[in-house]
């Protein structure tokens, strides 16, 4: 299909790990992104991965890329209440100027 | 740097009224975008621009017009507002794909919340 798909909601307890999944559509996408949107604010880039990588780690964040299945995941270790937000995955379609965003996953962290 | 700014932050319109949303960026980005965000639908691209004086249609362009007369500004117009255009509107900008600059991330403004009654 044409859509970038994500589950809509995820709830975790503070201190646990969170895993947010995304299925994208264009196997030739060069960059894949995770954006974070806090309440009442715009999106901010959280992390990204280049398509020739399988994994990228940045402090509490781990991004895994499975190009065969076109699956992207974001793992947040030791999840904190400040991580409560909406998380969007996005890809740049090859040969276009367009970024395609997923529907967003609302992460709720329970104290 | 202010980054990407949007004016106004909130607006309430009556059906049939017109308005213009202003987006400004001070990062010398070539590309600019307008999105709308609706619950459960993520971000949908309305129009975009790859340079001063150029615009193109996105996924949901009907009922909107845009102009990019100056590189730093991208205007979104609603000629005759409809309740279906109630949404949160985001502007974004990024470097040109061939610039070789970084990861081509999009920088977003804080959004404009529009209600059409």
3D structure, described in words:
The complex is a heterodimer of chains A (111) and B (117). Chain A has strands spanning 5-6, 9-13, 18-23, 31-37, 43-50, 55-58, 61-66, 71-76, 85-92, 99-101, 105-110. Chain A is mainly beta and 111 residues long. In chain A, strands 2, 4, 5, 9, 10 and 11 form a 6-stranded mixed sheet that branches. The model of chain A has no long low-confidence stretch (mean pLDDT 91). Chain B is mainly beta and 117 residues long. Helix content of chain B is 0%, strand content 53%. Chain B has no helices and 11 strands. In chain B, strands 2, 4, 5, 6, 9, 10 and 11 form a 7-stranded mixed sheet that branches. Chain B is globular, with a radius of gyration of 14 Å. The N and C termini of chain B lie far apart (36 Å). The A-B interface holds A 4, 8, 31, 33, 35, 40-45, 48, 50, 88, 90, 92, 97-99, 101-104 and B 4, 31, 33, 35, 40-43, 45, 48, 50, 56, 58, 90, 92, 97, 103-106, 108-111.
Topology:
The complex is a heterodimer of chains A (111) and B (117).
Chain A: E1 5-6, E2 9-13, E3 18-23, E4 31-37, E5 43-50, E6 55-58, E7 61-66, E8 71-76, E9 85-92, E10 99-101, E11 105-110
Parallel strand pairs in A: 2-11
Antiparallel strand pairs in A: 1-3, 3-8, 4-5, 4-9, 6-7, 7-8, 9-10, 9-11
Chain B: E1 4-7, E2 10-13, E3 19-25, E4 31-38, E5 42-51, E6 54-57, E7 64-67, E8 73-78, E9 87-94, E10 107-108, E11 112-116
Parallel strand pairs in B: 2-11
Antiparallel strand pairs in B: 1-3, 3-8, 4-5, 4-9, 5-6, 7-8, 9-10, 9-11
Quick structural gist:
The complex is a heterodimer of chains A (111) and B (117). Chain A is mainly beta and 111 residues long. Helices cover 0% and strands 55% of the residues of chain A.
């Amino acid at each position: 299909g044409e859509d970038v798909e994500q589950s809509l909601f995820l709830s975790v307890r503070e201190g646990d790990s969170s895993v947010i999944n995304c299925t994208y559509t264009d196997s030739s996408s060069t960059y894949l992104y995770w954006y974070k949107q806090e309440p009442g604010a715009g999106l901010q880039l959280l992390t990204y991965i280049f398509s020739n990588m399988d994994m990228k780690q940045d402090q509490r964040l781990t991004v895994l890329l499975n190009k065969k299945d076109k699956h992207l995941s974001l793992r947040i270790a030791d999840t904190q209440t400040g991580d409560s937000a909406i998380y969007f995955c996005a890809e740049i379609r090859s040969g276009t100027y367009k970024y395609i965003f997923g529907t967003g996953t609302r992460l709720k962290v329970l104290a | 740097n202010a980054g990407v700014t949007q004016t106004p932050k909130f607006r309430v319109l009556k059906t049939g009224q017109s308005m213009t949303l202003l987006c400004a960026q001070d990062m010398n980005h070539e590309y600019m975008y307008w999105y709308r965000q609706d619950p459960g639908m993520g971000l949908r691209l309305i129009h975009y621009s790859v340079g001063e004086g150029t615009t193109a249609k996105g996924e949901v362009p009907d009922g909107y017009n845009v102009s990019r007369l100056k590189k730093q500004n991208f205007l979104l117009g609603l000629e005759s507002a409809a309740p279906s255009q109630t949404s949160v509107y985001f502007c974004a900008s990024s470097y040109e794909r061939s610039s070789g600059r970084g990861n081509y991330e999009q920088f977003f403004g804080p959004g404009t919340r529009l209600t059409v009654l």
